[in-house]
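Incident review: delayed structure delivery

Summary: a single-chain prediction request sat in the queue longer than the usual turnaround. Root cause was a stuck worker, restarted by the on-call engineer. No data loss occurred. The affected request and its eventual output are reproduced below so the record is complete for anyone auditing the incident later.

Affected input:
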Amino acid sequence: MIITLKLFASLTDYLPATSRYTNLVELEVPDGATITQITEPYHLPPALVHLVLVNGRYIAPEQRASEVLVAGDVLAIWPPIAGG
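Output delivered after worker restart:
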């Protein structure tokens, strides 16, 4: 199945070079893939995976290993953002 992975801010550095400008990549993943299974190959540091949304719906940290994606889903991830 095909899903879209969108990484924001400093996390775009973990995308393939050809996807960094758009901050997204379309992925073919196995049916029944969870958020954790999709992000593991990108070696995202857990401390930087702060805000996770699937189709605009927040996914709490304790749900990410069991949340199953379906074809067409958009998985968006932001790091913690500091400002002042």
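Verification: Helices lie at 35-39.
Action items: add queue-age alerting; document worker restart procedure.
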